[in-house]
Write a structure and sequence with these properties.
The chain folds into 3 domains: 66 residues, lambda repressor-like DNA-binding domains (434 Repressor (Amino-terminal Domain), Orthogonal Bundle), CATH 1.10.260.40; 41 residues, Homeodomain-like (Arc Repressor Mutant, subunit A); 136 residues, Tetracycline Repressor, domain 2 (Orthogonal Bundle). The protein has 15 helices and no strands. The protein is mainly alpha-helical.
């Protein structure tokens, strides 16, 4: 008998549940493939659950809680105003990935997705080829996991940054700061996100592309609102918003930690560039 659908009504509630499930799975050392097999769903379905894109019924949620050794009530609990599981959006602890994902990230950045083999991934992970295949059946699933991780983290940070702002100019400034910080502190993930979307197969491509558009729409909305209020003067708000986001995402193509400017200084520069692009009516951007 099918389990009853749990009443996760809003996108925010689904995303909170998905984030908790993903964190619990990662703490358990399981991959999406492992979890999907044990819970009895497809890899695509479980990935969608962790991304807050679909609901999960009570039976499967209870099965996941048992698998991940976490109280089901903790997973279901309403998020507080500021979810304690969310990091500060300006905070970037050293990136810690399971060895196969770390090896895949290194190999894809160095050799490109199509140039890298599972043997290249295994060598960088310090594992056997069979060991990598035990958890990730294909190279494609490694790429998808890296891109899902990137978009989940970046979306969460952008929402937190935007929520701190009062008015479209300030919110745009915070969003640009967030995007610039991410594409420097997480330069390898940003590089893969910019260069390897063409390598992603369906249905994953549509899901990841939707997450990218959601971030673009945050910036679109603030520029449109700034123009409506007379606080920005660009005659082309949609095009200006896209130029701003492209400016930030391109950082992962050229910025280097060995350069003269650290991420925080780059972020301050880019907020000024962005405000100039949209014709913001301010003397200087907030720090």
């Amino acid at each position: 008998m099918a389990g009853q659908q749990h009443g996760i009504a809003s996108n925010e509630e689904r995303e909170t549940l998905g984030r908790r499930l993903r964190q619990a799975r990662q703490r358990s050392g399981l991959t999406v493939r492992d979890a999907a097999r044990e819970i009895g769903v497809s890899i695509g379905t479980w990935s969608a659950v962790e991304n807050g894109r679909t609901r999960v019924d009570d039976d499967r949620l209870n099965r996941a809680a048992q698998l991940f050794d976490i109280d089901a009530a903790t997973l279901r609990a309403a998020a507080p105003a500021t979810d304690a599981t969310a990091p500060g959006w300006r905070d970037f602890a050293p990136l810690q990935l399971p060895p196969p994902l770390a090896g895949a990230l290194e190999a894809f950045v160095e050799l490109g997705y199509h140039g890298a083999t599972i043997r290249d991934v295994a060598e960088r992970a310090g594992m056997s080829v069979a060991g990598v295949y035990h958890h990730w059946a294909t190279k494609q699933l490694l790429l998808v996991e890296l891109l899902d991780l990137t978009m989940n983290d970046l979306t969460q940070r952008c929402r937190a940054a935007r929520a701190e702002g009062d008015g479209p100019v300030r919110r745009l400034t915070l969003l640009v700061e967030c995007l610039a910080l991410y594409h420097t502190h997480r330069i390898e993930l940003g590089f893969i996100g910019a260069s390897e979307m063409r390598s992603v197969d369906e249905p994953h491509r549509t899901r990841i592309a939707t997450a990218r558009r959601d971030i673009q729409h945050m910036v679109d909305d603030e520029v449109a609102e700034g123009c409506r209020r007379g606080q920005m003067s660009t005659p082309l708000p949609r095009e200006a918003a896209r130029a701003v986001v492209t400016l930030c995402t391109a950082l992962s193509q050229w910025w280097s930690a060995s350069g003269e400017l650290p991420p925080e200084a780059i972020a301050q520069q880019y907020t000024r560039f962005a405000l100039d692009i949209v014709g913001a009516c301010v003397d200087a951007p907030p720090a």
